[in-house]
Prior knowledge:
By secondary structure, the chain is an alpha/beta fold. Helices cover 34% and strands 20% of the residues. It has helices at residues 25-34, 56-61, 107-110, 122-135, 155-158, 160-169, 206-212, 219-231, 249-263, 281-290, 313-328, 344-351, 361-370, and strands spanning 14-18, 38-41, 64-68, 75-77, 90-92, 95-96, 101-102, 116-119, 141-144, 174-180, 197-203, 213-214, 235-243, 269-276, 278-279, 302-303, 309-310, 336-339.
Amino acid sequence: MTNDWRDPALHIKRIYLAKNCLDHPYGEEIISRSGLPVTTVDEKDLGTVLREEYPATLKEGKRSLLLCRNQGEFLKDCPGTREYRCCDYRVLNVGLGCPMDCVYCILQAYLNTPYLSFFLNTENLFEELNAKLEAYEGGVMRIGTGEFTDSMALDSITRLSSRLVRYFGRQSKGILELKTKSAAIENLQYLEHNGRTIVAWSLNSEEIIAHQEIRAAPLEQRLDAAARCVEWGYDCAFHFDPIISYPGWEEGYRKVITRLFEKVPAQRIVWISLGGFRYLPALKRIASERFSHTQIFAHEFIDGLDNKKRYFRNFRANLYKLIYQELMARCSPTTCIYFCMESDEIWREIMGFVPSEKGGIGAMLDRAVEMR
Length: 372
Ligand code: SF4
């Protein structure tokens, strides 16, 4: 067990401030809190700040943070695919990139900038949220910030969580999910969340965390952080994603589940997702070049309907079966266990039903929110 884990925000060594944000008070606040050197830049010149070529830029790019404006929409539908069952999730785009470095991270194939970005114009973000939540006619809109970044990885310098949690604490139509692999959660204490924020951790076996999730918090620290959030009145969620096969995976994942339920009260877990390892073909080359030690691609994969490589169906079913049974033996009846991006065949085989029989995954998750 490593005890030397530190807040991933400390990995940032320099800040670039976009010229059009020079007087933005949030930018001033972040700069003064971070104590880091700042360079003012025109965004179009940023491509020249690092001389290395992509993907080598990714490593050094994780040390640089660009504070800028989001010129587009903040809230978007989760980029699920039609071919597999997805969960009607909305993504709140607060920035791009992450100072942690997971071998399997899909962002390596999507983002080629030599810096991470954080959007300062939260005034526009909240305006947009107000309008979209007001107009929303469904039940509760589930919104997460952990799609193009990690929700808490930069929070010690941005303190965005305080703004978001307080905002959602005043909403009746929205639920915020903060999804992370960090354990730097101190800013969540003392906030008036009113049960409208769910704090979620991606979990993996200690073996995978140690070798494939660089700078992410060790398992015990993630679970300790979850237990603290429960003490502060938050409900939690967990994502077993990506589930990765390796020699000894059964014991590895069993241990995660045992420790999870030893540390976090079952009735405070709103949902748990399961997702087998899958990747865009371009990722294999990039990740193998950056992490020569990795064995996660040394396996047989098939081409999924979403153009991602994934384990063979029977192989996925084996992984899921064990994890699902271990979870079902311990979890609360109110916790929604669901697959992220899986076929009806897998749902039927492992869980004994398909989502449409229960109104769809979105409705299942909405009920889990209501039953708390
Ligand atoms: S924590 Fe998430 S966003 Fe960050 S590197 Fe890992 S997979 Fe990517």
